[in-house]
UniProtKB/TrEMBL annotation:
Species of origin: Strombidium inclinatum
Protein name per Swiss-Prot or TrEMBL: Uncharacterized protein
UniProt cross-references to Gene3D superfamilies, sorted A to Z: Leucine-rich Repeat Variant
UniProt xrefs under InterPro entries: ARM-like
Length: 282
Protein backbone atom coordinates (compact mmCIF):
# COMPACT_ATOMS: atom_id res chain seq x y z
CA UNK A 1 0.00 0.00 0.00
CA UNK A 2 1.45 3.34 -1.01
CA UNK A 3 0.49 6.25 1.23
CA UNK A 4 0.24 9.76 -0.16
CA UNK A 5 2.27 12.71 1.01
CA UNK A 6 -0.98 14.03 2.42
CA UNK A 7 -0.85 11.19 4.95
CA UNK A 8 2.13 12.74 6.74
CA UNK A 9 0.50 16.16 6.77
CA UNK A 10 -2.65 14.64 8.24
CA UNK A 11 -0.68 12.89 10.97
CA UNK A 12 1.04 16.13 11.95
CA UNK A 13 -2.39 17.74 12.30
CA UNK A 14 -3.35 14.98 14.72
CA UNK A 15 -0.76 16.23 17.19
CA UNK A 16 -3.05 19.07 18.14
CA UNK A 17 -5.84 16.58 18.84
CA UNK A 18 -3.60 14.56 21.11
CA UNK A 19 -3.16 17.29 23.66
CA UNK A 20 0.46 17.98 22.86
CA UNK A 21 0.35 21.36 24.60
CA UNK A 22 0.29 19.59 27.96
CA UNK A 23 3.45 17.64 27.31
CA UNK A 24 7.09 18.59 27.61
CA UNK A 25 9.11 19.60 24.54
CA UNK A 26 10.94 16.27 24.67
CA UNK A 27 7.68 14.32 24.68
CA UNK A 28 6.30 16.54 21.93
CA UNK A 29 9.25 15.78 19.69
CA UNK A 30 9.12 12.05 20.41
CA UNK A 31 5.41 11.78 19.69
CA UNK A 32 5.71 13.93 16.60
CA UNK A 33 8.46 11.72 15.25
CA UNK A 34 6.39 8.61 15.94
CA UNK A 35 3.32 10.15 14.32
CA UNK A 36 4.99 11.09 11.05
CA UNK A 37 7.05 7.90 10.68
CA UNK A 38 5.10 5.43 8.58
CA UNK A 39 6.23 2.17 7.00
CA UNK A 40 5.14 1.79 3.39
CA UNK A 41 3.26 -1.32 2.34
CA UNK A 42 6.26 -2.51 0.34
CA UNK A 43 8.51 -2.26 3.43
CA UNK A 44 6.25 -4.29 5.72
CA UNK A 45 7.90 -7.44 7.10
CA UNK A 46 6.28 -10.64 8.29
CA UNK A 47 5.99 -11.73 11.94
CA UNK A 48 9.10 -13.88 11.70
CA UNK A 49 9.99 -14.14 15.39
CA UNK A 50 6.56 -14.00 17.03
CA UNK A 51 5.92 -17.43 18.57
CA UNK A 52 2.24 -16.78 19.31
CA UNK A 53 1.60 -15.63 15.76
CA UNK A 54 3.37 -18.59 14.21
CA UNK A 55 1.70 -21.21 16.42
CA UNK A 56 -1.81 -19.85 17.00
CA UNK A 57 -2.97 -17.30 14.44
CA UNK A 58 -6.58 -17.02 15.65
CA UNK A 59 -5.49 -16.48 19.26
CA UNK A 60 -3.01 -13.86 18.08
CA UNK A 61 -5.80 -11.88 16.42
CA UNK A 62 -8.21 -12.29 19.34
CA UNK A 63 -5.64 -11.27 21.95
CA UNK A 64 -3.85 -8.54 20.02
CA UNK A 65 -6.94 -6.77 18.72
CA UNK A 66 -8.96 -7.10 21.94
CA UNK A 67 -6.15 -5.63 24.04
CA UNK A 68 -6.14 -2.55 21.83
CA UNK A 69 -9.92 -2.11 21.96
CA UNK A 70 -9.76 -2.25 25.75
CA UNK A 71 -7.41 0.75 25.77
CA UNK A 72 -8.96 3.15 23.21
CA UNK A 73 -7.06 6.18 24.54
CA UNK A 74 -3.70 4.61 23.74
CA UNK A 75 -3.48 6.10 20.26
CA UNK A 76 -0.02 4.79 19.38
CA UNK A 77 -1.17 1.25 20.22
CA UNK A 78 -3.98 1.69 17.71
CA UNK A 79 -1.53 2.78 15.03
CA UNK A 80 0.56 -0.29 15.84
CA UNK A 81 -2.53 -2.49 15.64
CA UNK A 82 -3.28 -1.19 12.16
CA UNK A 83 0.31 -1.97 11.17
CA UNK A 84 -0.23 -5.52 12.43
CA UNK A 85 -3.32 -5.83 10.27
CA UNK A 86 -1.41 -4.53 7.26
CA UNK A 87 1.31 -7.13 7.79
CA UNK A 88 -1.23 -9.91 8.11
CA UNK A 89 -3.10 -8.70 5.06
CA UNK A 90 0.08 -8.66 2.99
CA UNK A 91 1.52 -12.02 4.03
CA UNK A 92 -1.46 -14.03 5.28
CA UNK A 93 -4.49 -12.85 3.28
CA UNK A 94 -6.32 -16.20 3.26
CA UNK A 95 -6.13 -16.39 7.06
CA UNK A 96 -7.20 -12.76 7.32
CA UNK A 97 -10.37 -13.47 5.35
CA UNK A 98 -11.05 -16.53 7.49
CA UNK A 99 -10.66 -14.65 10.77
CA UNK A 100 -11.87 -11.20 9.70
CA UNK A 101 -14.77 -11.22 12.17
CA UNK A 102 -12.27 -11.22 15.04
CA UNK A 103 -10.55 -7.98 14.11
CA UNK A 104 -13.74 -6.28 12.88
CA UNK A 105 -14.53 -4.61 16.27
CA UNK A 106 -11.03 -3.13 16.44
CA UNK A 107 -11.26 -1.86 12.88
CA UNK A 108 -14.69 -0.35 13.49
CA UNK A 109 -13.31 1.48 16.54
CA UNK A 110 -10.40 2.73 14.42
CA UNK A 111 -12.65 3.95 11.59
CA UNK A 112 -14.84 5.74 14.15
CA UNK A 113 -11.83 7.29 15.88
CA UNK A 114 -11.90 11.10 15.94
CA UNK A 115 -8.16 11.23 15.29
CA UNK A 116 -7.90 11.73 11.56
CA UNK A 117 -4.76 9.66 11.06
CA UNK A 118 -6.16 6.58 12.78
CA UNK A 119 -9.46 6.81 10.93
CA UNK A 120 -7.83 7.24 7.54
CA UNK A 121 -5.31 4.45 8.15
CA UNK A 122 -8.17 2.12 9.07
CA UNK A 123 -10.07 3.05 5.92
CA UNK A 124 -6.98 2.58 3.76
CA UNK A 125 -6.38 -0.84 5.29
CA UNK A 126 -10.00 -1.80 4.64
CA UNK A 127 -9.67 -0.80 1.00
CA UNK A 128 -6.50 -2.84 0.58
CA UNK A 129 -7.90 -5.84 2.41
CA UNK A 130 -11.15 -5.97 0.44
CA UNK A 131 -9.52 -5.16 -2.89
CA UNK A 132 -7.27 -8.22 -2.79
CA UNK A 133 -9.32 -10.59 -0.67
CA UNK A 134 -10.12 -13.04 -3.50
CA UNK A 135 -13.44 -14.33 -4.79
CA UNK A 136 -14.57 -16.27 -1.72
CA UNK A 137 -17.02 -14.54 0.63
CA UNK A 138 -16.87 -16.40 3.95
CA UNK A 139 -19.26 -16.19 6.88
CA UNK A 140 -16.53 -14.40 8.80
CA UNK A 141 -16.12 -11.80 6.05
CA UNK A 142 -19.88 -11.20 5.97
CA UNK A 143 -19.74 -10.52 9.72
CA UNK A 144 -16.82 -8.16 9.08
CA UNK A 145 -18.89 -6.22 6.54
CA UNK A 146 -21.85 -6.15 8.91
CA UNK A 147 -19.76 -4.70 11.76
CA UNK A 148 -17.45 -2.29 9.92
CA UNK A 149 -19.63 -1.35 6.94
CA UNK A 150 -21.97 1.15 8.67
CA UNK A 151 -18.98 3.07 10.06
CA UNK A 152 -17.42 3.27 6.60
CA UNK A 153 -20.72 4.47 5.16
CA UNK A 154 -21.03 7.29 7.69
CA UNK A 155 -17.46 8.41 7.00
CA UNK A 156 -18.39 8.99 3.32
CA UNK A 157 -19.94 12.28 4.42
CA UNK A 158 -17.27 13.22 6.98
CA UNK A 159 -16.36 16.91 7.03
CA UNK A 160 -12.69 16.28 6.23
CA UNK A 161 -12.40 15.55 2.51
CA UNK A 162 -9.41 13.21 2.77
CA UNK A 163 -11.43 11.00 5.14
CA UNK A 164 -14.64 10.99 3.09
CA UNK A 165 -12.70 10.29 -0.11
CA UNK A 166 -11.01 7.24 1.42
CA UNK A 167 -14.32 6.03 2.87
CA UNK A 168 -16.00 6.22 -0.54
CA UNK A 169 -13.18 4.17 -2.07
CA UNK A 170 -13.47 1.60 0.71
CA UNK A 171 -17.25 1.42 0.34
CA UNK A 172 -17.00 0.75 -3.38
CA UNK A 173 -14.54 -2.08 -2.77
CA UNK A 174 -16.86 -3.59 -0.17
CA UNK A 175 -19.71 -3.57 -2.69
CA UNK A 176 -17.51 -4.95 -5.48
CA UNK A 177 -16.02 -7.83 -3.50
CA UNK A 178 -18.63 -8.76 -0.88
CA UNK A 179 -22.14 -7.82 -2.14
CA UNK A 180 -24.12 -9.64 0.56
CA UNK A 181 -27.59 -9.15 2.04
CA UNK A 182 -26.10 -7.69 5.20
CA UNK A 183 -24.42 -4.92 3.21
CA UNK A 184 -27.62 -4.07 1.35
CA UNK A 185 -29.55 -4.06 4.63
CA UNK A 186 -27.37 -1.43 6.31
CA UNK A 187 -27.37 0.72 3.17
CA UNK A 188 -31.13 0.95 3.68
CA UNK A 189 -31.28 1.24 7.47
CA UNK A 190 -28.20 3.40 8.15
CA UNK A 191 -28.17 5.33 4.88
CA UNK A 192 -31.39 5.69 2.92
CA UNK A 193 -33.40 5.94 6.15
CA UNK A 194 -30.74 7.59 8.34
CA UNK A 195 -32.27 8.88 11.57
CA UNK A 196 -30.66 12.32 11.45
CA UNK A 197 -32.01 12.93 7.94
CA UNK A 198 -28.53 13.60 6.51
CA UNK A 199 -29.30 14.36 2.86
CA UNK A 200 -25.75 13.73 1.64
CA UNK A 201 -25.64 10.34 3.37
CA UNK A 202 -29.01 9.43 1.90
CA UNK A 203 -27.88 10.42 -1.60
CA UNK A 204 -24.67 8.39 -1.25
CA UNK A 205 -26.59 5.38 0.03
CA UNK A 206 -29.05 5.32 -2.86
CA UNK A 207 -26.07 5.50 -5.21
CA UNK A 208 -24.45 2.55 -3.43
CA UNK A 209 -27.69 0.56 -3.69
CA UNK A 210 -27.48 1.04 -7.45
CA UNK A 211 -23.84 -0.04 -7.47
CA UNK A 212 -24.81 -3.08 -5.42
CA UNK A 213 -27.19 -4.31 -8.12
CA UNK A 214 -24.50 -3.77 -10.73
CA UNK A 215 -22.30 -6.26 -8.88
CA UNK A 216 -24.63 -9.05 -7.78
CA UNK A 217 -25.50 -12.01 -9.96
CA UNK A 218 -29.03 -12.73 -11.14
CA UNK A 219 -29.44 -15.40 -8.45
CA UNK A 220 -29.54 -12.64 -5.84
CA UNK A 221 -32.89 -11.30 -7.14
CA UNK A 222 -34.50 -14.63 -8.09
CA UNK A 223 -36.22 -15.13 -4.70
CA UNK A 224 -38.67 -12.42 -5.81
CA UNK A 225 -40.17 -14.95 -8.22
CA UNK A 226 -40.79 -17.50 -5.47
CA UNK A 227 -44.19 -17.90 -3.85
CA UNK A 228 -42.44 -18.74 -0.58
CA UNK A 229 -41.41 -16.07 1.88
CA UNK A 230 -37.72 -15.67 2.70
CA UNK A 231 -35.41 -13.11 4.29
CA UNK A 232 -33.93 -12.31 0.88
CA UNK A 233 -37.34 -11.75 -0.68
CA UNK A 234 -38.41 -9.52 2.20
CA UNK A 235 -35.22 -7.47 1.87
CA UNK A 236 -35.62 -7.04 -1.89
CA UNK A 237 -39.23 -5.89 -1.55
CA UNK A 238 -38.02 -3.44 1.09
CA UNK A 239 -35.48 -2.13 -1.44
CA UNK A 240 -38.21 -1.53 -4.02
CA UNK A 241 -40.35 0.38 -1.53
CA UNK A 242 -37.40 2.46 -0.33
CA UNK A 243 -36.35 3.36 -3.86
CA UNK A 244 -39.88 4.58 -4.54
CA UNK A 245 -39.63 6.75 -1.42
CA UNK A 246 -36.34 8.16 -2.70
CA UNK A 247 -37.83 9.00 -6.08
CA UNK A 248 -40.37 11.22 -4.31
CA UNK A 249 -37.62 13.03 -2.38
CA UNK A 250 -35.51 16.14 -3.07
CA UNK A 251 -33.74 16.42 -6.49
CA UNK A 252 -30.31 14.92 -5.68
CA UNK A 253 -31.79 12.01 -3.75
CA UNK A 254 -34.43 11.53 -6.44
CA UNK A 255 -31.73 11.31 -9.11
CA UNK A 256 -29.72 8.72 -7.15
CA UNK A 257 -32.82 6.66 -6.31
CA UNK A 258 -34.06 6.77 -9.90
CA UNK A 259 -30.72 5.47 -11.18
CA UNK A 260 -30.68 2.76 -8.50
CA UNK A 261 -34.18 1.62 -9.46
CA UNK A 262 -33.09 1.52 -13.10
CA UNK A 263 -30.17 -0.75 -12.20
CA UNK A 264 -32.41 -2.94 -10.04
CA UNK A 265 -34.84 -3.32 -12.96
CA UNK A 266 -31.97 -4.18 -15.31
CA UNK A 267 -30.90 -7.00 -12.97
CA UNK A 268 -34.47 -8.29 -12.82
CA UNK A 269 -34.78 -8.19 -16.61
CA UNK A 270 -31.50 -10.07 -16.89
CA UNK A 271 -32.71 -12.78 -14.51
CA UNK A 272 -36.02 -13.24 -16.40
CA UNK A 273 -37.42 -14.65 -13.16
CA UNK A 274 -40.42 -12.34 -12.89
CA UNK A 275 -41.59 -9.21 -14.76
CA UNK A 276 -40.45 -6.10 -12.94
CA UNK A 277 -43.94 -4.54 -13.06
CA UNK A 278 -45.29 -7.36 -10.93
CA UNK A 279 -42.79 -6.56 -8.20
CA UNK A 280 -44.02 -3.00 -7.96
CA UNK A 281 -47.45 -4.27 -6.96
CA UNK A 282 -46.36 -6.80 -4.35
Amino acid sequence: MVFEDQQKKDEIDILVEMGQAEKSKEEDEALKQKAVTYVSFEELEDFKDDHLFNTNFDQFIKQDMQDRINDPEEWHAQFEGLDHLRKMSKFHKAKMVEWSAYFAPFLKASVDNLRSGISKDALMFTTEFLKDKGETTTESLVEFIKVVGPSILHKTVYEKAFISKEAKTSMMHAIATAPCSELLAFLLSDGCRCKNNNKSLMENSYTYVGEFFKQVGTSFVEPLASSEESDRKTLLLEVVRQLQVGIDSMPKIKKAATEALKLFKAKMDESKAIPFDKILHQ
